[in-house]
Design a protein that fits this description.
The protein has 20 helices and 23 strands. The protein is of the alpha/beta class. Strand 8 and strand 9 form a beta hairpin.
Length: about 625
C-alpha cells in the first residue's frame, strides 16, 4: 500500500511506504543505549543506565530495548532491521595491529584485552543474536536482519540526519571508533560522503581523557569536571603540551607523541614520562585539587579549543557549506562549541545532544533508513530530536499509585496553580526536584528530570553542589532561559536547546570585582558573585545556556514564565536530577528516593507537589552510596 502525506510547510508531496521499524543499539563499551526509528522518525531512545541505575552501564541494553519497543507498541520480531553502531571485527583488527606495533610493550594489557575479546566481543554478532532472541523469546533464525554500521558513520548520521540542514559539513571527534578518532563528512540530502579521517592512536578525545586521568578524575565521566575546572586556572602548561605532546598542523590535523601516553597498550592513560614532564605523579582521586590542576585544566582546554577551531576552518574551506554538524564525545565540550560559534566561519552549527556513544544508536538506525534503504530526507527549520525528550513518561495515575504505596504526603494541583505555587517556592530560595513528561536522551537534564533553583541566589551554587548533588563545589550550573529572552541575559543570538553552547553573561548584568577580589586566584574566586544571576555565572562570566521553547517543553516554559512574572527574572538554575555517581532519575520511585536522601526542599512529579518537611520519617540508609563509584 502507498499513500501520500501533504507537507504544508515545505509545499512538497512526499511518498511514504508501509512503516519501516529500525532498532539501533550501542553497547559493550560505555553508555549502552537503544533507539527506535520508524520510517525516518525518531520515536524513542534511552540509555540502559537509567533503568539499571548503574552509571555508564555498558551491558546489552535489554531494558532500553524493551522500553523503545513498548513506546511504539511493537514486538522485537516485527522490526524490519536491527543495527549495531559499529563493526567489532575492524576494532579487533585495530587492537591486534596496535599490540604488534608496540610489542613487547603492553603484554599485560594485551592479555587482559584478548581475554575479553575471545570470550565475547569477537563473537559479538552471535552474542547479540542470543541476547535479542532471549528478549524476544524466539529462535535466532526468527529475528529480523542484524546489520552493522561503522562507529563514525553512526556519529555522523546522528549529527546530520536529525539536523535542520539540507547540506552541512559533519565533524566527528571522539576517543576512537574502529580506527577513526576524527573524521570529516559532507552531508547532502539523504547521503553522507566521507572526506578524510585521523586514525588511532592520534586522538583529541584520548588526549583530553589523558589529562582527565592525570588530574585525578575518572575517564569517560570526569571530562566535564576538567572543563569546569579550567576557568579557575591559567594556561601555564600550554606551551609544554604543544612542544612535547602534540604536533598540530595549520589545518588542525595532529599527531600525538606516544612516548608520553600509555593508553595504546597499557592499563593507564599516561606513563612515568608524562608524570616527569609535569613534575609529579597523577593526582589521587578525592585528594585536594590545587592551583596546579586548575592550570593544567586551563592549558589542555585551550589546546583543545585551538584544534577544534582549526579543524572547523579546514572543513569550511574544503566543503564550502555554511552549516556544521558535530558529534562524538568531544562535541560535548560546550566551551569549545561556544568559541566555534563566535569565532568560526560557519553561519550555523547543530550538535547532536547525545553526542557520545549513546547517540550512536540513533545514528545507526537513521543510517539504515537513509543510506542503506535509500529513503529520502526532508530537512526543516527545527531539528528532528524533539528536544531530546525521547524517554519514558508516567501518568498521574501511576505517580499517585507509587506515592500512596510509600505513604508519601502530597497535594495535587492543576497546572495554573502548580506553576504559580512552584514559582513562589523557588523565589523563596528553595531547591526543587522537577519531574515531568518524557525523560531526556543524552547526558543533559533539560527540564524534565531536573533540579531547579533561583539563579539570583548567591548561595544556590554551593547549596546545590554540597547538599544536593554531593559533588565538588567548583562545578558550575546551567541556566534555563526563555528562548525569546536569551539575548537579554547572554551574548548569544541563536537557540541553544540542548545546553551545548557556552556564552558570556551580558555585561550589564556583571558585578564588578573589588581590588581585593581581583587579587584572589583559584578556588578563592568561587564565592565572589559575578553577576545579577550569580548561581549560573561561572568565574569567567560565562554560562552553559539552555534555551527553553514552548514547542518542545511547554510545562517547563510556563514555569519559567510564571517565575519571571513573579520576580522579573526569566531564568532558572537547572542541573540534572541525580546525586554524584548516580544516573539521572528515570521513574517516580527514583525521583522520590533521590529527594528523600538529599537536602532538596520540594519535589514536583507531574501535578503532585511534595514538601520534604511533610514526608514520613525516612530510614536514612547510606548503603546506596556503595552501589555507585563516586567519581
Amino acid at each position: 500500500m502507498i499513500f501520500h502525506d501533504y507537507n504544508v510547510d515545505s509545499i512538497t508531496w512526499w511518498r511514504i511506504e508501509l512503516k519501516m521499524n529500525i532498532l539501533g543499539i550501542s553497547a559493550y563499551y560505555h553508555d549502552s543505549a537503544a533507539a527506535l526509528v520508524q520510517s525516518g522518525k525518531i520515536m524513542a531512545a534511552a540509555q540502559e543506565e537509567r533503568f539499571t541505575r548503574k552509571k555508564h552501564d555498558a551491558r546489552f541494553p535489554k531494558n532500553a530495548i524493551s522500553y523503545v519497543l513498548t513506546e511504539a507498541n511493537l514486538s522485537l520480531r516485527k522490526l524490519d532491521y536491527i543495527v549495531f553502531y559499529e563493526k567489532p571485527l575492524i576494532t579487533f583488527e585495530r587492537l591486534l595491529e596496535t599490540y604488534i606495533t608496540y610489542a613487547p610493550k603492553g603484554f599485560r594489557s594485551f592479555v587482559t584485552a584478548m581475554t575479553a575479546w575471545l570470550q565475547e566481543k569477537l563473537y559479538l554478532k552471535t552474542v547479540l543474536k542470543k541476547e535479542l532472541a532471549k528478549l524476544a523469546n524466539c529462535k535466532t533464525a526468527q529475528l529480523p536482519p542484524l546489520l552493522f554500521t561503522e562507529h563514525h558513520q553512526s556519529h555522523a548520521a546522528s549529527a546530520f540526519f536529525p539536523s535542520p540542514f539540507e547540506t552541512a559539513a559533519i565533524l566527528c571527534l571522539d576517543a576512537v571508533g574502529e580506527w577513526a578518532t576524527t573524521s570529516l563528512w559532507l552531508g547532502q540530502g539523504n547521503q553522507m560522503i566521507p572526506q578524510w579521517e585521523i586514525d588511532f592512536p592520534h586522538s583529541l578525545g584520548l588526549l583530553y581523557s589523558a589529562f582527565t586521568y592525570y588530574t585525578g578524575f575518572k575517564v569517560n565521566s570526569g571530562e566535564y569536571k576538567l572543563m569546569g575546572l579550567a576557568p579557575y586556572g591559567e594556561g601555564k602548561y600550554t606551551n609544554l603540551i604543544l612542544e612535547n605532546l602534540i604536533d598540530i598542523k595549520e589545518d588542525g590535523t595532529f599527531r600525538l607523541n606516544m612516548d608520553y601516553f600509555n593508553y595504546a597498550t597499557g592499563l593507564t592513560m599516561t606513563n612515568h614520562k608524562f608524570a616527569k614532564l609535569f613534575g609529579q605523579p597523577p593526582r589521587k582521586p578525592e585528594s585536594e585539587i590545587t592551583q596546579r590542576e586548575m592550570n593544567i585544566a586551563a592549558s589542555i582546554q585551550k589546546v583543545t579549543e585551538e584544534i577544534v577551531l582549526k579543524l572547523a576552518d579546514t572543513a569550511y574551506r574544503e566543503l564550502g557549506t555554511d552549516n556544521l554538524c558535530l558529534a562524538g564525545g568531544v562535541a560535548l565540550n560546550c566551551v569549545s562549541n561556544g568559541r566555534l560559534l563566535r569565532e568560526g566561519k560557519f553561519k550555523d552549527i547543530w550538535i547532536q545532544p547525545a553526542a557520545g556513544d549513546s547517540g550512536g544508536a540513533i545514528g545507526a538506525a537513521l543510517a539504515i533508513w537513509h543510506q542503506y534503504s535509500e529513503k529520502p530526507r526532508y530537512a526543516n527549520d527545527s531539528d528532528a530530536m524533539e528536544g531530546a525528550y525521547l524517554g519514558p513518561q508516567f501518568s498521574n495515575e501511576e505517580v499517585q499509585q507509587y506515592l500512596d504505596d510509600v505513604r508519601a504526603n502530597y497535594i495535587y494541583l492543576e497546572e495554573s496553580e502548580l506553576f504559580s505555587k512552584v514559582a513562589e517556592i523557588l523565589a523563596k530560595g528553595n531547591v526543587v526536584g522537577w519531574f515531568q513528561g518524557r525523560m531526556e536522551f543524552g547526558p543533559r537534564a533539560l527540564g524534565n528530570r531536573s533540579i531547579i533553583g533561583d539563579p539570583r541566589n548567591e548561595k544556590m551554587q554551593s547549596v546545590m553542589n554540597l547538599k544536593i548533588k554531593y559533588r565538588e563545589s567548583f562545578r558550575p550550573f546551567a541556566p534555563s532561559v526563555l528562548a525569546e529572552k536569551v539575548d537579554q541575559y547572554f551574548e548569544l543570538n541563536k537557540p541553544s536547546p540542548y545546553m551545548l553552547l557556552v556564552a558570556e553573561v551580558k555585561k550589564d548584568l556583571h558585578i564588578p570585582m573589588t581590588a581585593e577580589e581581583k587579587q584572589l586566584f583559584g578556588i578563592e574566586k568561587l564565592n565572589i558573585p559575578r553577576s545579577k544571576i550569580p548561581a549560573v555565572t561561572h568565574v569567567d562570566y560565562s554560562a552553559r545556556v539552555q534555551t527553553v521553547h514552548p514547542e518542545t517543553n511547554l510545562r517547563y516554559y510556563q514555569l519559567i514564565k510564571q517565575f519571571e512574572a513573579l520576580t522579573g527574572c526569566g531564568v532558572l538554575v537547572n542541573t540534572s536530577f541525580n546525586v554524584r555517581g548516580e544516573p539521572i532519575v528515570c521513574t517516580p520511585e527514583d525521583a522520590y528516593r533521590c529527594f528523600m536522601r538529599t537536602e532538596m526542599d520540594y519535589l514536583v512529579i507531574n501535578n503532585y507537589l511534595l514538601a520534604k518537611s511533610k514526608q514520613p520519617q525516612w530510614q536514612k540508609d547510606e548503603s546506596w552510596k556503595e552501589e555507585f563509584e563516586l567519581d
